[in-house]
């Protein structure tokens, strides 16, 4: 039987206390019937279970004379089927392509992010035990442990979504569940440009930078779109190149013919068996990579990543949490210091400036839109300081109609990177065309134009 999926919130019934009451009674009835059948039920496939639930809920509602109609009975049966063979209230949210994040702060406090905007969801769970039942169903096939002795867990769902759970005694308001979803079909650069993440000029620069094997670091905050940008840039990589991706929790989905995916491993219950990202980067150098892509630099692996970029593995990319290109450089220095870098401060900065070619700063605006905020080139060293120049800067302007519009201001500067020599002719034409915009910007704020060239 073909069934139309029922979405939470389609009408007032699913959000009502009456739905929860009838569903809870019907669920207890189903558990009794399943217990009576014993091992026979365990051998049933999902279609057989769905038919069984439909039949049992229909008969139960009529015997108990609950005041619900046929449509409401189907909604109850659909919800109970998901409880038995799926992930209960999470099933529809996980299948909704518009949902990016699911955040559960206790059973009665659920928020969902759609297109970068957080919204509160109607009550989906009966109690905290209901939440834990669904969480343990997710973790069971993954072999992950969650109890008072191990009250935090990170895991990856079969569809690639990332799960984090925190329970008591660390959590005071019930189970805290965070699920980050990822697109099964990665966004192409053309898609991001259509969504307004960047404009045509930045598109051409990024295409040239990736094709010319420039080393790129994508910087931004949480949920700013760093991974999506990394996936999009991979479309510019030639089909004959071998890419090795290294991640803490696998999130990237590169649309490329030759991708080798590596994922770190946490330590076991006895503290042994850990394989860190730093270990994977070292090992990847023995795997004949053309490019190494690190999902996120957050620890001691920064040293090995810089060494890889400085020793012939050009065209490598990574993401990092930072609020600006300059803060990105400071953070790399800090991480290297924490990792026990033994050289001088100047030698570390020389490694960073020699390894990186471009820093792409991306951010999520208050309205939920994700935009490239800055494209900055790392030039080299001067007076012991890493020198950079900003090529493009994002500004929002108010149009004649009073609506806010996106604008990327070109600083009127060509990249210094020698890898882009073959592309500088076309870039020069683009810069000349955008020169009037730069002049207008400089006349409004001369200091801003001067500082962007100097930093």
TrEMBL record:
One of its GO terms (molecular function) is ATP hydrolysis activity. CDD domains: VirB11-like_ATPase (cd01130). Signal peptide: none annotated. SUPFAM superfamilies: P-loop containing nucleoside triphosphate hydrolases. Residues 85-362 form the Bacterial type II secretion system protein E domain. Transmembrane segments: none annotated. It comes from the Bacteria. This is Pilus assembly protein CpaF. It comes from Advenella faeciporci. The lineage of its organism: Bacteria, Pseudomonadati, Pseudomonadota, Betaproteobacteria, Burkholderiales.
């Amino acid at each position: 039987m073909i069934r139309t999926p029922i979405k939470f919130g389609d009408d007032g019934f699913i959000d009502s206390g009456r739905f929860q009451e009838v569903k809870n009674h019907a669920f207890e009835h189903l558990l009794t019937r399943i217990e009576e059948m014993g091992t026979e039920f365990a051998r049933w496939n999902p279609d057989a279970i769905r038919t069984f639930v439909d039949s049992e809920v229909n008969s139960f509602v009529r015997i108990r004379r609950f005041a619900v109609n046929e449509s409401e009975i189907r909604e109850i049966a659909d919800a109970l089927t998901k409880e038995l063979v799926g992930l209960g209230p999470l099933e529809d949210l996980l299948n909704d392509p518009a949902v990016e994040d699911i955040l559960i702060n206790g059973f009665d406090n659920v928020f969902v992010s759609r297109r970068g905007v957080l919204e509160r969801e109607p009550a989906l769970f009966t109690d905290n035990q209901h939440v834990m039942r669904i969480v343990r169903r997710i973790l069971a096939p993954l072999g992950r442990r969650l109890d008072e002795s191990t009250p935090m867990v990170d895991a990856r769902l079969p569809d690639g979504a990332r799960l984090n759970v925190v329970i008591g005694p660390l959590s005071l308001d019930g189970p805290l569940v965070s699920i980050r979803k990822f697109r099964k079909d990665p966004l192409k650069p053309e898609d991001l440009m259509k969504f307004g993440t960047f404009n045509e000029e930045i598109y051409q620069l990024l295409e040239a930078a990736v094709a010319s094997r420039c080393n790129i670091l994508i910087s931004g905050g949480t949920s700013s779109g760093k991974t999506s940008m990394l996936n999009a840039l991979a479309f510019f990589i030639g089909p004959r190149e071998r890419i090795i991706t290294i991640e803490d929790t696998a999130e990237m989905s590169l649309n490329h013919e030759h991708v080798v995916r590596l994922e770190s491993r946490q330590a076991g219950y006895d503290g042994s068996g850990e394989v860190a990202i730093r270990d994977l980067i070292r090992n990847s150098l023995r795997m004949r990579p053309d490019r190494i892509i690190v999902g996120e630099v957050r620890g001691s692996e920064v040293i090995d990543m810089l060494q890889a970029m400085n020793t012939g593995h050009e065209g490598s990319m990574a993401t990092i949490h930072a609020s600006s290109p300059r803060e990105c450089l400071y953070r790399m220095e800090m991480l290297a210091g924490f990792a026990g870098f033994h050289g001088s401060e100047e030698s570390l900065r020389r490694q960073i400036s020699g390894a990186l070619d471009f820093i792409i700063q991306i951010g999520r605006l208050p309205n939920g839109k994700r935009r490239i905020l800055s494209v900055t080139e790392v030039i080299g060293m001067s007076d012991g300081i890493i020198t950079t120049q900003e090529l493009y800067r994002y500004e929002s302007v108010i149009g004649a109609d009073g609506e806010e519009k996106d604008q990327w201001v070109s600083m009127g500067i060509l990249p210094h990177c020698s890898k882009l020599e073959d592309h500088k002719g076309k870039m020069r034409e683009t810069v000349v065309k955008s020169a009037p915009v730069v002049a207008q910007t400089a006349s409004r704020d001369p200091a801003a134009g001067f500082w962007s060239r100097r930093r």
